[in-house]
Specification:
By secondary structure, the protein is mostly beta strands. About 10% of the residues lie in helices and about 45% in strands.
Amino acid sequence: MIYGELRELKFYKGISENLDKAIECIESGVYKNGVSGKNEIDGDNLFFNCQTVTTQPIEERFFEGHKKYIDIQIVIKGEEKIGYTSRSNVIRTSPWNRETDFEKYEGSVDHLFDLNEDTFIILFPEEPHMPLIHGENGPMEIKKAVFKVKIK
């Protein structure tokens, strides 16, 4: 997991070719004008999902994880918190879905990270994370982009 300010994202180039492409796309700002749903950049190797969703209380959220893709999550409008914990602190509650690259977990949140228009979080495969937790201002509608970066 990597968390930081968007202006620092360039420091993480060189980890993988697909991640470099994602960083360049984010630096260009193209995701801010993405259409709702899937926005392809390089087929299934790299795309982002643009969504407008409402944040929720932590008690209503769950951990999720992936095996084939790195997530880069960025809030375009609004703010949210993302919960994070180590893999050993969760129990899988749904089998991994190969098509959607998604599995669900239960467990306790070890860390909360604030996401807004100036920050990002990169979540690697097998790292349980709990997005869409509301902040101090309560539930709010946010617009966000979730980049899906295929690992090779």
